[in-house]
Amino acid sequence: MQPTISSKLVTLSDIEAQVQKNLPSIQPGKNYTLEELVGKKFWQAIPQSHRKELGHEYRAKERTGQLPVFCTGKTSCNKRLYQKR
Questions:
Q1: Which helix (H) or strand (E) holds 35?
Q2: Is pTM beyond 0.85 here?
Q3: What sign has the CA pseudo-torsion 31, 55, 1, 4?
Q4: How many Cβ atoms are within 10 Å of 9's Cβ, its own excluded?
């Protein structure tokens, strides 16, 4: 059995809720990876293959303008960067 948050598979809704929870500590104008937005401990508990899938889903939803952050580019490791709206 692969490790997951609370013994269940993490969904895009879980990611969005975690970002929303951490939003007050996110500084406007500063770039963050999705891992930083949700918190390292939360992110590391998600299986690596599922993290990539969730990252793609989060980026797709970000493109619709429905999230409190927007994409500003990528890191040298190809991780998306986000800033607070």
A1: helix 34-38
A2: yes
A3: positive
A4: 13
